[in-house]
């Protein structure tokens, strides 16, 4: 990945809707060369997708929580099946395998505390293989999701 690719990534993280012409002007390459580079970054999986970041409250999702989840390894051994179920829940907007006392950390959104409680109790805890949950309610988002730091040192 050279400095042109890094510049493309930085610009697209700032504004994924920027036109190819504007992108090419900013990195000082021709539009066809720029488009070829963007397509190559997409094909390699460097660029995963283009999404709009929406304010959760504006669409009725006023509660965000981080949920630590542990698996019951003695009763359930198909981890990928549990992960498939976690991926399918719309309320789970992020899911990561972690080290430490828990197996996963989930970022969950809900309309309100009652909806969150119902999701955790009636849905998440009912997944075969889930042993325990610990939730932490987000009081205030200080820094919303942002782009990755793309610099020369990551080459």
Question: Which keywords apply here?
Answer:
Alpha-Beta Plaits, WH-like_DNA-bd_sf, sequence-specific DNA binding, 155 residues, WH_DNA-bd_sf, Arc Repressor Mutant, subunit A, 4 strands
Structure description:
- Keywords: DNA-binding, Transcription, Transcription regulation.
- The chain has 155 residues and is an alpha+beta fold.
- Helix content is 35%, strand content 19%.
- It contains five helices and four strands.
- It has helices spanning 3-14, 20-27, 31-43, 79-88, 113-123; strands at residues 63-71, 92-97, 104-110, 130-137.
- The protein has a four-stranded antiparallel β-sheet with strand order 2-3-1-4.
- A hairpin with a 6-residue loop joins strand 2 (92-97) and strand 3.
- Helix 2 (20-27) packs across helix 3.
- The longest helix has 13 residues, at 31-43.
- The model has no long low-confidence stretch (mean pLDDT 93).
